[in-house]
Amino acid sequence: MTEYAIELNNLTKKFGDFTAVDDLSLTVKEGEIFGFLGPNGAGKSTTIRMLCTLAQPTSGSAKVAGYDLIKDSARVRENIGLVAEKMIMYDRLTAAENLRFFGKLYEIPKQKLEKRIDELLELVDMQEWKNTQISKFSTGMKQRINVIRALLPEPKIVFMDEPTLGLDPQTTFSIRDITREINDSGVTVILTTHAMVEAEALSDRVAIIDHGKVAALDTPQKLKNMITNSDTTIFGTKITNLTSDLIGKINSLDVVTAMSQQDDYNLKISAKGDDALNQIIDTVRHEGGNIASITNSNESTLEDVFLAVTGKEMRDQASEKAAPVHHGHGHTPKARVR
Ligand SMILES: Nc1ncnc2c1ncn2[C@@H]1O[C@H](COP(=O)(O)OP(=O)(O)O)[C@@H](O)[C@H]1O
Ligand SMILES: [Mg+2]
């Protein structure tokens, strides 16, 4: 029907004078896991609430599963599932009773609902807890039920708003696995998280939102490439007889653009040009230095990208330039020595 699972066109949400979501336009492809990142207050949850028809846009429009958010809101609701920021669960009901309750809200026929509940409990490995009161569950177990609750009506698109917030590492891991499985079954996933590792591991593409606007949007790899100065390489050298003299000599090489001493033996050296590694090695040897190891890294992390596009310093520059990174003229900070 449509190649996009979601299409936002100048979507805007104001609370009084305050603009929480500011003229947001982006598309999410069918079958994607789309990472929706941004600092607290960036407007992520507000955007998700609008796309789930829980909040009215102030202006702009969006299509969800091919249906217009405003004109076809009932159709939109039929195609989506929401794992909300706050869990909605009845503590005094059992897992199955909770799921039945929500299944009835979705008007799923009784027999089909029972089958679906069993399938989903199996998906999250909770079959044996089916008839146990939610009040006896750990936070992680509750969250697994909360996640499958969103899957009851077999949605095409699932919104997961910080599904691993406050969970222990084991549960976090299992929720990530479940997210992958949901996606593997053909469901488009919009995932909000503060865990960059999670965003990077799961997302096909990532949007970083700040002040209700897109600050960057691309695949994790491309985002990382963007902030790495491509002709600069960062070498980590371990020199067993490192002296300040030698450090001075390396630093004075033209190919070396920045450098820092990590400890008695280790240097991080940013260098430019094809011949950089040769020159560094020659210099160290010439000065009688003994190289124990050299590592070479050009990789930045998604966290670097996040801080680069939302951090205070970069934010000021970004507003001067007003050039969103996904249009291809993003701010490219000089590769740093970390
Ligand atoms: N119902 C509301 N009334 C007034 N302000 C709101 C309301 N909901 C959210 N906001 C404000 O909108 C901004 C974006 O909030 P939110 O979408 O929850 O951010 P995020 O999920 O990215 O942390 C925040 O500054 C928040 O305080
Ligand atoms: Mg939020």
UniProtKB/TrEMBL annotation:
It comes from the Archaea. It is found in: Cell membrane. Keywords: ATP-binding, Cell membrane, Membrane, Nucleotide-binding, Translocase, Transport. Residues 316-338 are annotated as: Disordered. GO terms for cellular component: plasma membrane. GO terms for biological process: daunorubicin transport; doxorubicin transport. This is Daunorubicin ABC transporter ATP-binding protein. Its main location: membrane. Residues 6-236 form the ABC transporter domain. It comes from Methanobacterium bryantii. Residues 324-338 have a biased composition (Basic residues). The keyword Lipid metabolism does not apply. Belongs to the ABC transporter superfamily. Drug exporter-1 (DrugE1) (TC 3.A.1.105) family. The keyword Translocase applies. SMART domains: AAA. One of its GO terms (molecular function) is ATP binding. Pfam families: ABC_tran. Coiled coil: none annotated.
